[in-house]
């Protein structure tokens, strides 16, 4: 076997011990909050049938799914495979589109929502509804790698399906708030809006253009400003009068409650909307009022972090109710979380009418925020707490029962595996970020004592084993 | 989008909440033991370059690697990809072998050892040696699915590289023992042997056949017995006299120490081995003696669970020192763990001479053992501890501060999200395995009290919120 210079694929990453520990800290905070709210863990396979994935993410999404070659001789007919047709030379010459369905039947998980919908449909007979699940797993996208954009990354989703109760929306706000507060990301804004409110805007404009065009344009307000959005609306077939009417509605000001009341009045006085659209908008505003009432009932007290943002649109087309997005204000970073209610998640798999609401945290972005703001607790960085030094064969043997007792007390510890110079062993502890070194030379051994050195301060104290354990388990 | 009946690929699994909780229990036990011994977590990407994977697992292994199609138009030249050659119609007609390297450059992680070796080589400049890492991640093999054989399954590896110290081998025995004991799998046997001892056997037979043929035959002793192994040895070019000599050596009896001494004597008196082979076998036996000495130093007291098994061979060709395997005795199941020392893990990636030792737990088999023996703790099965009932809009609102206080006390709890009949809500709690239900009707609300019902016993007690929290946090 000739030696080769190894590498990893573009857009993928190795996570060394310090990074894994920090990522696990984030996962742990999220997991504990999810579980405290009654969400239970689900894990789905990395490999999904392409028949499940294809057509769920739009044309662009289809292209970005990683496809896995059928095993064995993938150009020949596969016994027991879904696609049994043999690949012909003509297919191959015809190119990708003709060949693909015949040589690849599986793909890598692209998000956690579609596998969740598939799971609910396949297990509807045995699941207890409302079904609350969370899922923390990697997904893969054949996107062009860029700064902050990876081909393999984790999503942390929580969804509840099988209930229309707006209690779920209120609890999502609570969960978002608790995760961010626990992580120390206190300067955040949880934006909330409702698809029906956006729908009422569309109706109020008099039925020009398309709803999705309107949402897409509004979604860009942050980036391109009012003028840019107006220009885009005109290009997409809206009139100048409609654009003006839209900005009258969007310009509503005040706190959450004031905005709700002013919009309710605005829909009435606008006078341009057909009755059903106004009713639709009313339903959206009433939903938001109910969410507010639940939050008050919970004693929610972070109102400065919650914003009714009528310009929030969210890209995904399947949302039908409340929508959410989180921005960390003191870091230059896109949204770290988003979600919303959907009415027909499982329709594509033959189970219509399953309403649910869910949201997702982006762990890579949270990680970058915590790093930028230096919010990782120091204790997260290391695993081993104490290194025992190894002078010679005799001291090595004498340290073994000490090591056993430290570990029995729950202290992650290791004995340097080779006898030798102390300097090298201190350097080892330092490089690994091990905070304590326990030393026993012949003199200390005779006295039944140890030196416990704190590497950060260089401070040494003479201690018994019991005292060392007390110090190390503090 | 037409409705379809969804499915998951053969050999893959969804893990619902109860199973995830039980699997996480196993992972948690393993992780805590690994960390207590100073091993730190590493995670490598799911996708590896095929150039890294190919040729590391033998010809059969090459076939079993899942290959991922290049993204975009995979039949056309890819900018920035490693393989830039365009696929021609002739290539396609020529079939799999000619096309594969051009249309797929990435594969799914096949084990955790090769990615670990790659990581060590890529990061040798910054790592601190000896480097102890553990890795708990899924791997994928395009094997024919069967009972207990999956295409996606988890491995839990711990390895230390950059030291020859046999302290590591002794600590592996301790870690194996602690994991199994913590899981309640007390009736187990940790088998240990040494490749050099096996090598000395081979030399002692007079240089007939090949070493790997001998190891393969010995490995089958459990399954095909002495006669079967003798037959196989004759077929593989060994003489009947050599086979008899082998069984004289293999028949050594006694406890660990007695076997060591008798083998040492046996190698001397066999008189048939060339000097260097005897020395080789001596080195192996001396290594095992040193491991024993370390274990005694640690106060290891599970000698009945440790066996010097001279017939243990382990399939993998890269082992060069001590080898390990674990069998659970009171369950009908293959080995749940194995490992050994290797001298040249990173040679294939251009970094020779890195010695290390490691082992791996098979989580699926451990899971089946715990299930067969009913060893999963009951508390592992559920997440939500308490369901709050929802009578009507008024009681729903009144329950919100209660829910907040329960969660603040760390009690995973949920309010049934829809007002309605209590019977349905009790059924929900029962189906989800929620152990407690907290009820507050108008009467209890007036008195500032609750009914706390234990579902398993049907017992109800009238309590204050403080009393409920005390009971629920027990």
Automatic annotation (TrEMBL), chains A, B:
<dbReference type="InterPro" id="IPR006195">
    <property type="entry name" value="aa-tRNA-synth_II"/>
</dbReference>
<dbReference type="InterPro" id="IPR033656">
    <property type="entry name" value="HisRS_anticodon"/>
</dbReference>
<dbReference type="GO" id="GO:0005737">
    <property type="term" value="C:cytoplasm"/>
</dbReference>
<dbReference type="InterPro" id="IPR004154">
    <property type="entry name" value="Anticodon-bd"/>
</dbReference>
<feature type="binding site">
    <location>
        <position position="314"/>
    </location>
    <ligand>
        <name>L-histidine</name>
    </ligand>
</feature>
<dbReference type="InterPro" id="IPR045864">
    <property type="entry name" value="aa-tRNA-synth_II/BPL/LPL"/>
</dbReference>
<keyword id="KW-0030">Aminoacyl-tRNA synthetase</keyword>
<dbReference type="InterPro" id="IPR041715">
    <property type="entry name" value="HisRS-like_core"/>
</dbReference>
<feature type="binding site">
    <location>
        <begin position="111"/>
        <end position="113"/>
    </location>
    <ligand>
        <name>L-histidine</name>
    </ligand>
</feature>
<feature type="binding site">
    <location>
        <position position="159"/>
    </location>
    <ligand>
        <name>L-histidine</name>
    </ligand>
</feature>
<keyword id="KW-0436">Ligase</keyword>
<comment type="subunit">
    <text>Homodimer.</text>
</comment>
<dbReference type="InterPro" id="IPR004516">
    <property type="entry name" value="HisRS/HisZ"/>
</dbReference>
<dbReference type="Pfam" id="PF13393">
    <property type="entry name" value="tRNA-synt_His"/>
</dbReference>
<feature type="binding site">
    <location>
        <position position="155"/>
    </location>
    <ligand>
        <name>L-histidine</name>
    </ligand>
</feature>
<dbReference type="InterPro" id="IPR015807">
    <property type="entry name" value="His-tRNA-ligase"/>
</dbReference>
<dbReference type="GO" id="GO:0006427">
    <property type="term" value="P:histidyl-tRNA aminoacylation"/>
</dbReference>
<dbReference type="GO" id="GO:0005524">
    <property type="term" value="F:ATP binding"/>
</dbReference>
<keyword id="KW-0963">Cytoplasm</keyword>
<keyword id="KW-0067">ATP-binding</keyword>
<feature type="binding site">
    <location>
        <begin position="318"/>
        <end position="319"/>
    </location>
    <ligand>
        <name>L-histidine</name>
    </ligand>
</feature>
<protein>
    <recommendedName>
        <fullName>Histidine--tRNA ligase</fullName>
        <ecNumber>6.1.1.21</ecNumber>
    </recommendedName>
</protein>
<dbReference type="Pfam" id="PF03129">
    <property type="entry name" value="HGTP_anticodon"/>
</dbReference>
<feature type="domain" description="Aminoacyl-transfer RNA synthetases class-II family profile">
    <location>
        <begin position="1"/>
        <end position="401"/>
    </location>
</feature>
<keyword id="KW-0547">Nucleotide-binding</keyword>
<dbReference type="InterPro" id="IPR036621">
    <property type="entry name" value="Anticodon-bd_dom_sf"/>
</dbReference>
<feature type="binding site">
    <location>
        <position position="141"/>
    </location>
    <ligand>
        <name>L-histidine</name>
    </ligand>
</feature>
<dbReference type="GO" id="GO:0004821">
    <property type="term" value="F:histidine-tRNA ligase activity"/>
</dbReference>
<comment type="similarity">
    <text>Belongs to the class-II aminoacyl-tRNA synthetase family.</text>
</comment>
<keyword id="KW-0648">Protein biosynthesis</keyword>
């Amino acid at each position: 076997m000739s030696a080769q210079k190894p590498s990893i694929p573009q857009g993928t990453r190795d996570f060394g011990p310090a990074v894994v520990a920090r990522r696990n800290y984030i996962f742990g905070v999220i997991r504990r909050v999810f579980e405290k709210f009654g969400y239970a863990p689900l894990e789905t396979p990395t490999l999904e049938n392409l028949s499940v994935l294809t057509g769920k993410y739009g044309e662009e999404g289809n292209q970005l799914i990683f496809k896995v070659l059928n095993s064995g001789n993938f150009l020949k007919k596969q016994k027991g495979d879904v696609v049994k047709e043999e690949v012909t030379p003509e297919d191959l010459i015809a190119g990708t589109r003709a060949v693909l369905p015949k040589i690849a039947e599986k793909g890598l998980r692209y998000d956690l929502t579609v596998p969740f919908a598939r799971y609910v449909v396949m297990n509807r007979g045995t699941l207890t509804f409302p079904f609350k699940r969370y899922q923390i797993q990697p997904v893969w996208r054949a996107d062009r790698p860029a700064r902050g954009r990876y081909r393999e990354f984790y999503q942390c989703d929580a969804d509840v399906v099988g209930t229309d109760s707006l209690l779920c929306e209120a609890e999502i706000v609570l969960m978002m708030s608790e995760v961010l507060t626990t992580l120390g990301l206190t300067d955040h804004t949880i934006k909330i809006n409702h698809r029906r409110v956006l729908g009422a805007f569309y109706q109020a404009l008099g039925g020009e253009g398309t709803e999705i065009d309107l949402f897409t344009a509004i979604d860009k307000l942050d980036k391109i400003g009012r003028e840019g959005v107006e220009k885009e609306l005109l290009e997409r077939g809206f009139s100048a009068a409609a654009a003006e009417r839209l900005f009258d509605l969007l310009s509503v000001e005040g706190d959450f409650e004031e905005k709700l009341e002013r919009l309710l009045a605005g829909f009435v006085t606008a006078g341009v909307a057909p009755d059903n659209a106004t009713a639709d908008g009313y339903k959206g505003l009433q939903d938001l009022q109910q969410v507010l009432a639940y939050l008050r009932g919970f004693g929610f007290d972070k109102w400065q972090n919650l914003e009714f943002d009528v310009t929030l649109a969210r890209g995904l087309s399947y949302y039908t109710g409340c929508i959410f997005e989180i921005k960390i204000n003191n870091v230059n970073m896109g949204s770290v979380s988003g979600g919303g209610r959907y009415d027909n998640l499982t329709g594509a798999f033959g189970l219509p009418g399953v309403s649910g609401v869910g949201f997702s945290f982006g762990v890579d972005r949270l990680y970058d925020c915590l790093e930028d703001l230096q919010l990782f607790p120091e204790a997260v960085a290391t695993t081993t707490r104490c290194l025992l030094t190894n002078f010679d064969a005799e001291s090595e043997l004498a340290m073994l029962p000490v090591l056993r007792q430290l570990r029995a007390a729950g202290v992650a510890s290791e004995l340097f595996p080779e006898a030798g110079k102390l300097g090298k062993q201190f350097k080892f502890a330092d490089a690994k970020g091990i905070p304590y070194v326990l030393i026993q030379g012949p003199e200390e051994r005779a006295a039944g004592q140890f030196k416990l050195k704190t590497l950060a301060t260089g401070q040494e104290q003479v201690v018994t084993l019991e005292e060392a354990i007390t110090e190390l388990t503090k």
